[in-house]
Amino acid sequence: MRYLTIALAKGRISDECTEMLESTGLNCSEMKIESRKLIFTDEKNKVKFILVKPADVPTYVEYGSSDIGIVGKDVLLEEARDLYEPLDLGFGICRMAVAGPYNLDFKSKKAYKVATKFPNISARYFSSVGMDVKIIKLSGSVELAPLIGLSDVIVDLVQTGSTLRENGLEIKEVIADISARVVVNKASMKLENKRIIDIIERLQSVVKRS
Ligand SMILES: Nc1ncnc2c1ncn2[C@@H]1O[C@H](COP(=O)(O)OP(=O)(O)OP(=O)(O)O)[C@@H](O)[C@H]1O
Ligand SMILES: O=P(O)(O)OC[C@H]1O[C@H](OP(=O)(O)OP(=O)(O)O)[C@H](O)[C@@H]1O
Questions:
Q1: Alphabetically, which GO biological process terms does the record hold (predicted)?
Q2: ipTM greater than 0.90, yes or no?
């Protein structure tokens, strides 16, 4: 039996990911130990886990280097890869939103400058509402951009709203609800259907219980 490979997003969602996988009976406990190791093997279940940057999870899965991936919906919307997305895991919950200063009249629909880590999501959203915008790609601390005149608004993730509030910004429009999702390579779903469906069903039963 060949190993199935599961790509996990490093960072914010990785702990909840490993906990959920562990509660399905898979063994990835080694991943919780602080180390620089990026690949882990569950010999009993013939599964390998790889730890990659969130934005790279869809790439590994689309090319078949991983059969399964677990990653935020924000990354899936931004990367728009050709994958199956069979399951919402119900954690990593936040929203993708347009935000700007309290005094900005967003409804005036003028030609805004938009700072964001998500240029594709932003371009699609503003085109769908018929607004002509200039998109400025940043890598983080996006809330800073309107404060120092780099942009008029931002498109970013909002969870508690603290980052917006503490920088004098508010949500103008919500673009999408975000949470961690399971994705599957299309060929793997055919070739390893039974094993992959088994993992999805086990994850699904843990999601229902939580
Ligand atoms: N404030 C937040 N609240 C809840 N979930 C979030 C929040 N910010 C990000 N996420 C979710 O967690 C995932 C990982 O976020 P994380 O901050 O670890 O990575 P990143 O900063 O997007 O990636 P990179 O390390 O490449 O910069 C995101 O893709 C998103 O789905
Ligand atoms: O609504 P909140 O609970 O304040 O969370 C939202 C913040 O969390 C994320 O940033 P992150 O911490 O990943 O840092 P970043 O700016 O480097 O992306 C996101 O980009 C927001 O800035």
A1: L-histidine biosynthetic process
A2: yes
